[in-house]
Amino acid sequence: MTDPDALQALREVEAELDTRWPETQIAPSLDRIRALMDVLGNPQNSFPVLHVTGTNGKTSTTRMIDALLTRIGLRVGRFTSPHLQLVTERIALDGAPISAERYVQTYQEIAPYVSMVDNANDIRMTKFEVLAGMGYAAFAEAPVEAAVVEVGLGGGWDATNVVNAEIAVVGPVAIDHVDYLGSDITGIAREKAGIIKPESIALVAEQRPEVMQVILERVAEVDAIVARQGSEFTVLERNVAVGGQVLTLQGLGGVYDEIFLPLHGAHQADNAVRALAAVEAFFGAGADRQLDIEAVREGFASVVVPGRLERMRSAPSVFIDAAHNPHGASALAAALEEEFAFRRLIPVVGMMADKDAKGILEALEPVSTEIILTRNTSPRAMDVEELASIAQDIFGDERIVVEPRLDSAIETAVRLVEEAGEANEPLAGGGIVVTGSVVTAGEARTLFGKVPA
């Protein structure tokens, strides 16, 4: 197929998938995806899996693991969600999204089996279940030597959890997706810990005590091995550098120094050390066996994570960030404050109606000069006037600008940061960050002419 033909076929597949329950409508059961895997011959069992969960940082950690494994010499499959710009981003081979042609072909190959499962159940397979099935089928067909799989939502009953992953990475657990996971953080932790399988190795981020207790109970229940950030592995040193940061990491196999990571923020350093420990565990590294330091350096230096404090342009600096909950917004604010000396910083914020708008705005307020409120094109987007009413108590009317269209909001932000302030105030040094939602970040990325990655 030519590129236009491929994209048209891709749109047709997406139209078919959109007739199914969306990812915002959850049917907490593994029965359907297990049935699909059975009729496909259980492709998910044909390669080893590193499984990644947590409230934030999953995609970044998954991409880092992918980069390290690839640099060490393996053929790697990567499954992430949601996507920023194009659905093909979710299924990656050799470090890049699969082509539209391959995506369509994979769907067409499994579609008859999806119909079989649909017909045998009261509830049709959800869109995310089909996507997970496509990912596992594509990885088996490639074939890959390892797959890095990001949980979609939760862990235990997430559709990705039909794998028997030998490595489980549990990032920081916080409250998010309350409609689906509830507001009890120990219950959320229990669900996320469901990816830890018998006799696997779990790499666990620093957690609140009650969360760590739940995770360790799961480890004991399934007789897994655990390594904890801050104990068995940790970030020893972190220095801000041009285009990112330079790290010294204590891994399971020793110290890895002079690691350049082309990403901003202490949270990305934490993601990096968990990724390193996961790859070490995968290869059996320990006190007497360390990964090749040059391969680790080159792997981290090659990491690309679109939509995570990603620079779109300079003068003024415009970044996009997919932070969509208070935990993520706090990490974003900390990175902006620590690593950039903007004389004026303006977030452009559009978010989904089901998100904690107050918590996100409160996290951004201390680092913001003004704020521009907008909306993305999703039907789930929060109305901009509703968002403005929430922002008033946090920012005050004088610091709020409402622009219903994202493109206009970005143009307004650029104009504001370029305005002269005091007579002796420099024009340079203004910053803009477009954030609040994965969809907002993705649409902004498209506006700036970036291709899916």
TrEMBL record:
One Pfam family for this entry, by name? Answer: Mur_ligase_M
The EC category is ligase
Q: What is its EC number?
A: 6.3.2.17
Record keywords? ATP-binding, Ligase, Magnesium, Metal-binding, Nucleotide-binding
Stretches assigned to the Mur ligase C-terminal domain: 307-419
Instruction: Write down the Gene3D superfamilies for this protein, in alphabetical order.
Output: Mur ligase, C-terminal domain (3.90.190.20), Mur-like, catalytic domain (3.40.1190.10)
From the UniProt record, list the reaction(s) this protein catalyses.
(6S)-5,6,7,8-tetrahydrofolyl-(gamma-L-Glu)(n) + L-glutamate + ATP = (6S)-5,6,7,8-tetrahydrofolyl-(gamma-L-Glu)(n+1) + ADP + phosphate + H(+)
The residue ranges of the Mur ligase central domain are 52-279
Keyword Metal-binding assigned? yes
What would be an example GO MF term here? Answer: tetrahydrofolylpolyglutamate synthase activity
Q: Which family does it belong to?
A: Belongs to the folylpolyglutamate synthase family.
Q: What is this protein called?
A: tetrahydrofolate synthase
Q: What is the lineage of its organism?
A: Bacteria, Bacillati, Actinomycetota, Actinomycetes, Pseudonocardiales
